[in-house]
Design brief:
Keywords: Carbohydrate metabolism. The protein has 13 helices and 15 strands. By secondary structure, the protein is of the alpha/beta class. It has three domains: 76 residues, Arc Repressor Mutant, subunit A, CATH 1.10.10; 128 residues, 2-Layer Sandwich (Nucleotidyltransferase, domain 5); 169 residues, 2-Layer Sandwich (Nucleotidyltransferase, domain 5). The structure holds zinc ion (ZN).
Length: 394
């Protein structure tokens, strides 16, 4: 075996151990080795290295849990304060920042309101750089972030860190990573919000056995993240997987991307609100971005008295089912998880979704893939971008 191969294997093992500790720690070394099928020698070598880098802590041995020889186990974990990263979410008219520690735990929120659609390219670079400086000044020196992760609504090239298009911005093709790294002198990672959600889900204990799955994020737009062979799949050009802009009907409803008939143009919050306003007099104060409250009003009305609205959500479910059936036929994934703020209406879409799936695919194909709704109780995109920023410097 060449030396470079050995080094590659060592780095891959180290990455696996860090991921496992981030998700499951604290844990005994012997259990870590068994879970990852790594030899005791490998676990000892890598955990010693992490200890030398001051990235590992040992918890006091517990007396209740003992190994077979009766010795108390020492539990190890990532040291939460070994270093910190900054997670920033860029959405329409808002920059939201959180500190993430080495374990991936999130704290210290700061929100800056600004008219994002009025920003030039330079204006955007300056706004983010000054937001990062403000955040830095608000935390003690030992918590100053070592890296920045930016979650963006829209289409992003995760490989070169370019924002291709975002509903939050009037400018397109913005080389954000390159320009910001010059200004703030920190490594910058950029991902779209659906990939961030996917990374957050990949770090939840109950999904650890999955290696091939997709997460569909319903919300203002429709995004998707895909994990293939255990890794986030960005595609050859870095902008996979734009499920929301795959087509339902080529000459169909207008999509915000500029084309017609995308899945998002039927299922996104803005599309549902637009189509509902053709049925009822609705406030258009915030038509660019219907608020959570405005969307909840539609859900309540559909549940209580409006058959037309129920039909609208059912149609959204059928369009979603159409897209999902293509996904299943093409990729044969283990699981498709549906989440995001727009999944507040999942119960109104589910029957339409399932009907379309059953109509589109032979049952043998569907049976292999499970579809699950994961409730959106908190904004998981921040957690995901923190993890991506950590992994960039792990
Ligand atoms: Zn589109």
């Amino acid at each position: 075996m060449k030396k470079t191969d050995t080094e590659q294997i060592r780095l891959a093992n180290k990455k696996q151990i860090i991921h496992y500790l981030r998700v499951h720690g604290p844990i005994a070394r012997v259990d870590l080795g068994q879970a990852l099928k790594l030899s005791p020698a490998t676990v000892t070598a890598i955990t010693s290295e992490l200890q030398q880098e001051a990235r590992l802590i040992e918890h006091p041995a517990t007396t209740e849990k003992t190994n077979t020889r009766g010795r108390p186990r020492v539990l190890i974990d990532l040291a939460p304060d070994a270093f910190h990263v900054l997670g920033l979410k860029l959405s329409i008219n808002e920059l939201k920042m959180h500190l993430g520690n080495h374990k991936g735990q999130v704290s210290d929120e700061m929100v800056i309101d600004l008219d994002t659609r009025a920003l030039s390219e330079e204006g955007l670079f300056d706004a983010i750089a000054s937001a990062v400086r403000r955040f830095n000044a608000s935390v003690p020196a030992h918590k100053r972030p070592k890296a920045l992760g930016i979650a963006v609504q829209g289409v992003v090239n995760g490989l070169n860190g370019e924002i291709i298009w975002s509903p939050a911005l009037a400018v397109r093709k913005v080389p954000l990573k390159h320009e910001l790294e010059q200004r703030i002198q920190l490594p910058v990672t950029i991902a779209n919000d659906a990939n961030c959600l996917t990374m957050a889900i990949r770090h939840q204990r109950r999904y650890q056995s999955l290696t091939d799955f997709a997460v569909i994020m319903l919300g203002y737009g429709i995004g998707m993240g895909m994990v293939i062979n255990g890794e986030l799949y960005l595609g050859h050009h870095g902008a996979a997987a734009e499920f929301g802009h795959s087509k339902y009907y080529p000459e169909g409803a207008q999509c915000l991307c500029g084309k017609r008939g995308c899945i998002e143009a039927y299922v996104g919050d803005y599309a549902l609100y637009r189509d509902a306003s053709a049925l009822f007099p609705l406030s258009w104060d915030n038509s660019l971005h219907p608020t959570e409250d405005s969307m909840q009003v539609l859900v309540n009305k559909a549940e209580s008295d409006s058959k037309e609205l129920r039909d609208l959500f059912q149609r959204a479910g059928r369009v979603l089912g159409h897209g999902i059936s293509n996904l299943i036929a093409l990729l044969s994934l283990e699981k498709i998880i549906i989440s995001g703020p727009g999944s507040r209406a999942y119960h109104l879409m589910e029957a339409g979704l399932m009907t379309n799936l059953e109509d589109s695919l032979v049952s043998d194909l569907i049976a292999e893939t499970t579809i699950e709704h994961a409730a959106w109780d908190e904004d998981m995109t921040i957690k995901g971008i923190v993890v991506l920023a950590l992994e960039a410097i792990d």
